[in-house]
Amino acid sequence: QNHPFGIIETYRDRLPLDGIDQIVTLGEGATPLVPAPRLGAELDATVWIKVEGVNPTGSFKDRGMTMAMTKALADGSKAVVCASTGNTSASASAYASRAGMTPVVLLPQGKIAAGKLAQAVVHGGRIIQVLGNFDDCLRIARELAENFPVSLVNSINPYRIEGQKTAAFEIVDVLGDAPDIHALPVGNAGNITAYWKGYREYAADGLSSHTPRMFGFQAAGAAPLVQGHDVDDPETVATAIRIGRPASGNLAVAARDESGGLIEAVTDEQILDAQAFLAAQEGIFVEPASAAAVAGLLKLKSEGRLDPNQRIVITVTGNGLKDIDTALSRTTLSTEAVEASTHQVAALLDFDS
Ligand code: F0G
User: CB–CB of 250/197 below 8 Å?
Assistant: First the structure.
């Protein structure tokens, strides 16, 4: 093979895997950084979209999971456990199965997009729906890992963060320098922590001239970092970020403050509008949570709070196909029926004059 397969081969010298040579990978990373000229025109900026939905299981979680599973396997683990709003469970199930370990996933009952649940099911996880929210699931997962022979693969596992920081490396490698602003959705706050770590490491080694301002966005009904306190009953259409007690909240706030950035909230309506804009104007179909940062930048712009001519990278974290129910429930998506006749179809399309 003439190019590296997966993020560990690509960035091995920057990842803490000394002495480990059995790598668990599905070829994650090297995701496209897509120019977004229409969104750029709206924002009066130069915009690129980091499309993490093209990872093997359709979200950015795979970058962290290749690391966490490689470490768990090296440690001799037979089983791994995670709490999840969906994407982590899909990724953990795929990578654990690949590694020959048993995945145990704890999900908030009834609040997981169907595509993600399907992924966990087909990959053969032990799927346990908990009568509670994500924060309850994470508490239980942590206690299981403390008391039983099972490895925790949530993003409080430092190997997850190490893997996810490689997305920042890829962006600087492609652009030749860091952007002015990096915007992304924030849920449990692992990913903003990981990007900030990656950008700082590259800048420290002279591979970029500066670090970007980190702009994080939460859903208004699940915005503990905006409100400054935990939220007991988080609620949002963006189920991936329906989280009230972010495990890495302090690190997200540090990333915000050290980078001169911000963490703000967007409404479900703004999220769904941004999801529709990305699909219709840029050709990129993302799940609702992934549109939060696009919504947030549009909001800042409309309020006159976004400086012009910035170079902005936006991470869209998960694939739109994971949650088609939400996408279809909103748009006035209509199809038309016609007889199997070219003439009739042409007439319907007003092609016949
Ligand atoms: N976007 C998507 C699509 C996600 O699935 C998540 C988190 C986030 C954004 C937020 O990232 O938690 O690092 O701040 N999903 C987790 C899960 C919680 O269980 O799949 P974060």
Answer: no
Helix (H) or strand (E) holding 152: strand 151-152
Query: What distance in angstroms lies between residue 59's CA and the mean position of ligand 1's atoms?
Result: 9
User: Which pLDDT score, from 0 to 100, does residue 262 have?
Assistant: 98
**Spans in the chain with pLDDT lower than 70:** 1-2, 331-333, 353
Q: Is the CB of 241 under 6 A from ligand 1?
A: yes
Give residue 1's pLDDT.
Answer: 55
CB of 289 closer than 6 angstroms to any ligand 1 atom = yes
The interface pTM score, or ipTM, of the predicted complex is: 0.99
Secondary structure of the chain: what % helix, strand, coil (to 5)? Answer: 50, 15, 35
Answer whether 0.95 is exceeded by the pTM: yes
Distance CA 267, CA 112 (A): 19
> For residue 311, how far is its CA from the centre of ligand 1 (angstroms)?
24
Ligand 1 nearest-atom number relative to CA 185:
9
Give the residue ranges of DSSP H helices in the chain: 7-11, 37-43, 61-74, 87-99, 114-122, 134-147, 158-164, 166-175, 190-204, 224-227, 249-259, 268-277, 292-302, 324-330, 342-348
Q: Which atom of ligand 1 is nearest to the CA of 189?
A: 14
Report which of 249, 334, 256, 320 is spatially closest to residue 288, judged by C-alpha positions: 320
Q: Which residues share a beta bridge with 4? A: none
CB of residue 164 inside a 6 A radius of ligand 1: no
Residue 125 one-letter amino acid: G
Give residue 188 CA to ligand 1 midpoint distance, Å: 6
Atom number of ligand 1 nearest to Cα 186? 14
